[in-house]
Amino acid sequence: MRQGTLGIFLIAPALALLAAVLAWPLMSAIILSFQDVRVVGSVGPFVGWANYAKVLADPVFWNAAWLSLVWVAANAALQTVLALAAALILHQKFPGVRIARTWIILSWIVPTVVVVMIWRWLFSTSGGVVNPGLIGLGVIDRPMGFFATPWMAFAMLVLINSWRWFPFITLMMLAGLTRIPTDLIEAARVDGAGPWKRFTRITWPLLAPTLTVLLVIGTLLSFNVFDVIWLMTSGGPAGGTRTLPVLIFETAFRGYRISEAATIAVLATALLMAFAIFATRKLALSGDER
Amino acid sequence: MTRPYRWPNRWAVLLWAGLAVIGGLVALPFWFVLTGSVKAPQEIIARVPTLFPQSFTTQHYDKLLAASDYAAYMANSVIVAVASTVLTLLLAIPAGYAFFRLTFRGRDALYRVILLAYAFPSIVVLVPLFAMFARWGLIDSLLALVLVNTAFALPFAIWMLRAFFAQIPPEIEEAARMDGGPPLTILRRILLPLIAPGVGAVAVFAFVTSWTEYVFASVMILSDARRTVPVGFSGIIGQYQVDWGLLLAGASLAILPVVVVFALIGRWFVSGLTEGAVK
Questions:
Q1: B144 vs chain A: nearest CA distance in angstroms?
Q2: Chain B contact for A142, CB < 8 A?
Q3: CB-side neighbour CA atoms (13 Å) of B77
Q4: What is the tens place of the pLDDT at every residue in A164-187?
Q5: Can you say how many angstroms the Cα of residue B47 is from the centroid of all Cα atoms in its chain?
Q6: Predicted structure pTM score
Q7: Cβ <8 Å between A272 and B49
Q8: A135-161 pLDDT tens trace
Q9: Which of A12, A18, B62, B110 is the least crowded, having the fewest Cβ atoms under 10 Å away?
Q10: Side-chain half-sphere of B272: how many Cα atoms within 13 Å?
Q11: By the 8 A CB rule, do A226 and A245 touch?
């Protein structure tokens, strides 16, 4: 058998599944966005760009797009900072480092429903841990609603989502750190450079490409987050946590406006694809230079 | 002779302080959940939270298992997660090998397209997929979840296995080919054992992806008896609002299986991420 034939033969099953479960539905979503379908499975007339005109004129869409942007930026920043600190620590040699490296991922392997339940309980106004703790310390005198105002809820969700994802980024950052040749660091040490100087002059510049890659990955991962937000606040209060994925779900399954949801989805996908392609181009170029 | 480098004291203090903060951030919430699930109700709502339980009871677990189909949810989740893991490996190993070793037209373009799978909101495919599965009679079936979970784990799995194949010295494969084995036999007998850590890493990823999946399971599954843990548990949360003991017991049980899997092969996943997949 020729290599080409064998290659296709080995890849075909995986490709068939991806085509059926991802590619074909994605195409359907694009078609749906040019029709007027309201309930799943029904047939609607072709309406051209009408859905796009409607969505783009809707302040709710722009509000969600803005929230998504803030969401992505806040999460990428917080995750990366937490992950960098954790990776630098786990890169050192100390007793128990292997165990620490394995179990740091704990928050990522737990179902999101459980994550949400844990945090809702910890910050609950009826019982919980944080409110009684703060009252016990005399910081506040009655329970405080951590999810009461839109911006508080938004900030809490950023915290929870970054808490869930930063260990994953940490491990990938450790990969970048282990790739830095130890003799470079050793040489600097012999020359009398302290830990801070070794970090700023060697580790940081050599880690920068990895950080860029991880910022891109973090951006993609954060943009698509839906379940944590939906389970915690359902997009509330007052739409303060309604990012684009939440808006898509709400429009489709609460508002029964399937075509409109598909339109928002196509716009969100186009945005993200453009970013992904732009970012991978950039990265591929800088990768060649290295 | 190398003497282990001694950190200046203030840096050592910083290291341990940082480790304590990170460790507390990750572990403390879980500690409160696990210990909370065995505390007596009065202790759970005590004015001052206790770090170590002062009471011990299994009443929350008893109530959870008696009042809900939790055992069935667990069984469904395990079935879906194991099936998704096996299917992911069956599809990703040959594909990862082909993407690395075999040259054919459009290979690199295809590889890039597959990785784009993570560049769109998964929720986009939910509606069309629901309509399609309805036509195929897959709504309310665990098979639907296996197909979805596998599809979402596949691109990462292929990416990681390809990186592992890339680390095998070409001479080993060359020697095997000289001995005249057919490619698939070489893959199974010689290459697969060499990339065992990669296979372990991918298995963990697929299992976790499936175990934690909520959105598709909540839409595709209709009957209570076929629910997975995330969906079943979210129903229980809605029903038992602030019965924290019961909810903490449910959370503990939902954490248990992944922790077991991770205790067994988690270090492969970690080394796969930190050492294996060199971009």
A1: 10
A2: no
A3: 29
A4: 999 988 988 888 888 788 888 888
A5: 36
A6: 0.87
A7: no
A8: 888 888 888 888 888 899 999 999 999
A9: B62
A10: 27
A11: yes
